[in-house]
Amino acid sequence: MSKTLFDKIWEKHIVKTIDGGPSVLYIDRHFIHEVTSPQAFTGLNKRGIKVFRPAQTIATADHNVPTLNQHLPIKEELSRLQVEALKKNCAQHGVELYGLGHPFQGIVHVIGPELGITQPGMTIVCGDSHTSTHGAFGSIAFGIGTSEVEMVLATQCLLQSKPKLMRINVDGVLNKGVVSKDIVLYILSKITASGATGYAVEFAGSAIRSLSMEARMTICNMSIEMGGRCGLIAPDETTFNYIKGRAFAPKDAAWDESMAYWKSLYSDNDAVFDKEYHFKAEDIEPMITYGTNPGMGIGISEKIPTTETINENDKSGLSKSLTYMGLQQGSNIKGQKIDYVFIGSCTNSRIEDLRMVASFVKGKKKANDVEVWVVPGSKQVEAQAIAEGIDKIFEEAGFMLRQPGCSACLGMNEDKIPAGKYCISTSNRNFEGRQGAGARTLLASPLTAAAAAITGVVTDVRELLN
């Protein structure tokens, strides 16, 4: 019987299926951070039990950490308490912690892949919705709630219902100035922020296969923004070459054994999906959001929709979003003044993202009235950027290279966007108040964000590319 990639991994991890109900699923890797783990550890301690398999749990501090002066005590009390609780809990339960000061510290969804911990065919969970990022390696990876974090810590298993299956195909060749972030924002604009609710989404097609691993991670990262349970991409030579030689990648005979399994991970030709979409890469231009959910996006040359041009059910949402954003129906978003640029988050903070921005801004200066924060996704990304001289390029352009963390993706640390200010952000969410109370977020690719940093307004990056 033909199977999808998802089916193959799911079936291999079923411990037990409850008649007419969910399955007990074995979990290969469990990532934790300081925000959603304290209550889970408290639950274990109250019951007097230990983490069942501590070697399969990996911890880091990312959401609440400052991105300047990380050698100093954390100023915000709640952030400091959460980070201290993570240290205490990991020490008590024998869990490896990559905390502040550790060379492997960074955003949880950046360090897993770059260390070779994330591998094809795995089940991966974390108390964080963007765990879907790891699906770029051909794994089933999804976010879980705090009670489920406790369940995995205690049993290395999870009770889960199998989702429906969707495949999104993108074929063709991308236009100049269009990158993976534009692909996923385009898909979101077409199927909406709820279009994949209840589905596991496999991304396929020649345009997807042409992407690097880091670009694929951006796609899977935002599958959750479509309402998807997870996103995944079949592993191939690009995947294998990325993993080989990394710190926790299989070695020698174990590598050969892993490769034999990994090469079996693809959807069979006649595998059936519950829903399928097809898009042409040539139809995608640099994208930007105008509203307050990631599905409210348009091509940079397009006008903001009007109530006359959209679905009846979306009319009140459009009006509310545009009021919050201070934007007008039917107007151009190109040329909109911006105040901040944030390049970072688990969506776009990897070395390729920083290289892309540095290549574009080299020899240029940022607009005088724009503040630009570049936040690497990990200590390894930061070190590599410095080794390659990217930090100097940013300094000369007037960009501030900060230290690793989730930063201005979410208003949970010191890096907040002031009320009423416009920020072009390479992160994944533009909800009301996401980057700080009253902050106005425009989601875009690193290239589009860099172009706005230079011009001070929303800009079509294609006009500035040679």
Concise account of the structure shown:
The protein is of the alpha/beta class and 466 residues long. The chain has 3 domains: 5-160, Aconitase, domain 3, CATH 3.30.499.10; 164-283, Aconitase, Domain 2 (3-Layer(aba) Sandwich), CATH 3.40.1060; 291-463, Aconitase, domain 3, CATH 3.30.499. It is built from 15 helices and 19 strands.
Describe this structure in words.
The chain contains 15 helices and 19 strands. It has 466 residues and is of the alpha/beta class. The chain has 3 domains: 5-160, Aconitase, domain 3; 164-283, Aconitase, Domain 2 (3-Layer(aba) Sandwich); 291-463, Aconitase, domain 3 (2-Layer Sandwich), CATH 3.30.499. Helix 12 links the parallel strand 15 (340-343) and strand 16 (371-374). 53% of the residues are buried.
- Assign the CATH superfamily of the largest domain: Aconitase, domain 3
Number of domains: 3
The global form is globular
User: What value does the average pLDDT take?
Assistant: 97
CATH hierarchy: architecture of the largest domain: 2-Layer Sandwich
**Approximate helicity band:** 25-40%
Output the structural class. Answer: alpha/beta
Total helical segments? 15
CATH top-level class of the largest domain: Alpha Beta
Flag low-confidence runs: none
User: Order of strands side by side in the largest beta sheet?
Assistant: 5-4-3-6-7
Instruction: Characterize the main sheet.
Output: 5 strands, parallel
- Radius of gyration, in angstroms, nearest whole number: 21 Å
Instruction: Report the β-strand fraction as a percent range.
Output: 15-25%
Tell me the distance between the termini.
51 Å
CATH topology of the largest domain, by name, is Aconitase, domain 3
What is the tally of beta strands?
A: 19
